[in-house]
Each structure stands twice: as C-alpha cells, then as structure tokens.
Fold this protein.
Amino acid sequence: MNSVDWALTPALELAKSIRTLEVSPIELVNLYLERIDRLNPQLGSYFTVTADRAIALAKSQTEQLAGLNKLQELPPFFGVPIAIKDLTPVTGVPCTYGTQALQGNISGYDESVVWRIKAAGFNILGKTATAQIGSLPYTEPEGFPPARNPWNPDYTAGGSSGGSAAAVAAGLCAIAQGSDGGGSIRGPASCCGLVGIKPSRGRVSWAPVGDYLSGISANGPIARTVADAAALLDVMSGYTTGDPYWLPDPNPTFLEAASQKLGKLRIAFSTAVFPVGEASPVCQQAVLDTVKLLTDLGHDVEPGCPDFTGLIEPFTAIWQSGASASGIPGQALEPMNRWLLERTISAGEYLRAVNQMQVISRRIVGFFQNFDLLVLPTYMHSPIRIGEWADLSCEETLANIVNWIAPCPPFNASGQPAIALPAILDSHGLPVGIQIIGRPAAEATLIALAAQMEAAKPFPVLKFD
C-alpha cells in the first residue's frame, strides 16, 4: 500500500498489520507525523503535536516487537496512532480547553479514558482542536486556527470535537477520542463522514474527577468504521472506584456485537424535531434514504418521535453553566463564553433545571417501550461555513445553535446511547449524517445495526492528501 492508503486504513486493520510485521509502529508514527506537518496547517485539526513522545514510544514498541515470540501477548491496539481531544488531560502535555491563555497549562494527570487508551497500546500523536471549553458546535476558538472540514475546507468540521473528526477524516490519525455534551461527537462525525458514538451515561468513567454538568456529557470514539468505533468504546468503557453512576461491562464486547446477526427490529424515524420543526431537505433525505435501507434489510420502520417540548430551556440553562463551571476568568474567555458566564444562574435555578430535564427525560425514554431504536437527523442542516456566524450577536448565535443541533441534546439529557453514521453528500460535497438512538445501555444493538448498514451501503472514503 502507498502512504495514503496506510493513513486511511482502519485502526483494527493497522493493529493486525503491526502484529503480522507488515508495518512497524515507527513507520506508522512517522507516516502520520509527516501528514500532520504537511496537512494540519490547512485543517487546524491539532492544537498540540507530541512528536518526540510519539516517536520515542514507537521506537520502543518496534524494538519490543522484534523481541517477541508470541505476538498475541500484545495489547489490542499496540502501536496504533490515536489523537486526544484538547479538553481531556494527558500527563505532561498542554491542555488548553481551546483557551489561548491556557496554552502553557501542562496536565498533571491522565483522565480515565487516557490511561485506558494507553493500556490498550495506542500511541498518542497529540491533542486535537476543540471549541473553547467545548461549548460550541463549530471549532473556531480565538487564538487558534479553525478546524476545517477535509471534504470542503471552506466549511466547519463541527464542534466541539471538530479537530478529532477532521484528523480522522483527513488521515492525520487512525482514530480519535472525543466528548459529547450536546452533540459534540455526533455532529463532527456527521460533518466529516465518520462514525461517532455517544455512549450511555455511566458507560465511560470521568475519573479521577467528577461528572460534568449533571451527567449530560460523555467521552466516546470517532472512527472511520463501525468496528473501529466499537473496539475503542470497549477500551474506554468501565467502572472506576467512586464513579457516581456506572454500567456493567458489556457481554459480549461491543466489537463482538459488530459482527452479530440481528433479528427484525422495530425502528421509529422522524425528519422533524419538535418544537423546532422540520430538518432541511438534504437532512430529511438522509433520514429517508436510511429508512429505505433499513426496510430493505428487513426491519419494521414507521414514523414516530418522542415529545421534546419543554426541554430546550432547562437544557440550555445547564449547558450555559459550563462557562462558570470551567473556572476560567471571564477576561480569558471569548465573547460568546463571556456572555454565557454573565448569564450564570443561581444554584436553586440550576437544580430546578436539572429536575425539569430529568422529568422530561423520563418521557423520552418511555417512548422506547414501543421501539427498539429511533432514527433522526444528526443536525438540522448541513455544516456551516467557517466564520458564518462570527458577526452575529450572542443572542442570535445561541438561537442558531439551538436550531442546528436540536436532534442531539435530548439524548444527552436522557443519557441514552446514540451513534452517528454518514448517509449522503450535499451539493457542496459535504457529508450529511443521521443518528440512531437506542434504549438505555443498548449500545450493542446500535453497533450491530450500524455494522449491518455499513456492510450493505458503504460510505465513500475521502482521499485527502
């Protein structure tokens, strides 16, 4: 294979190629670092590249391979390059949270997902671009280049995990970690033609710190294939002592679920999210094409959607509290986050918002008593241009955000798992995705169906070079 083919090879296949000595860890790291050096200036996908650390580990792993007699003793992703979102601490590496004033902030610990990723044998290439404090669905923080969409760099890669999605789509890493507090994995995955999983609440630990904003956010994978995403979710998952909520380990594993045969499922779908309304025509078409595929695969598919009335106000109140919860002084924040900081609500108002969100979440989860899964648009319209909303007031920007990402936050509120999958291309050559939502803790069903869909209708791979 040539260098582009290697760069776009799924992570599981790279792990196998390393074990069979078809390629070495140091060859892969050098290949990705060369691409990052050459292509990242066009895309803004990385804030920090840890080249020296990655090379040192890759050399050590290559030497370890030469001395092994039993390659099966290796961890599952030995030598595979990965990227970590720059909201997630990695020991000894800057963690800026998309804030220019924190460019010298060196993390003193690994977050739980990071030590699990390291234990699985991954090699971390660097920290990917994020919206400042993860608050926005596009990645254009002040003082950093914007994260651009490899399918059309005039457009956003999404947010807040925009850098992770851009890096995977462009072949600047094999796979990436992201986090999702209102669509921040699913949105970038859909913008960039990838697979993204927001796990169930309690599936992935936030250790050693507490949860974030009453459990609406979750760490998860961004990948090129369903199997890769499932395997990384296996790596990320698990209880850590003292977690406020948790789920049992999956049995079978999520990767095994990706190859399981499915019986007939009862699946609901909608091209609208109320009270916001209908998605744009291209996003509606993505859902309708998915409905046809699911019907052809033998599933029972019918119109239906939970009632989200009353959720926008309490969810927005909790989400906007993230500016205050970050602990970053207002003078270090960009205007949108400074405005959110000024709108900080009282503790009593926050708790009432949490209560209201939880009551509505019961209604949302109750919908799934009659359905196994739900298909919705990921976002309400195609990716926006870089800087498209830069001249709007904060009030106008917030209204645009609420309308664009409307299909995502309800399932952060309810804690249900959701997977984003690419569906079609729009008139600008940009991917438009759908999301499938499952019952609580039912990631395995989502993954099995997504793998079935992927096999029946593969999405084209972007050859970015």
Summary: Residues 45 and 163 are 4 Å apart (CA to CA). Residues 347-367 form the longest helix (21 residues).
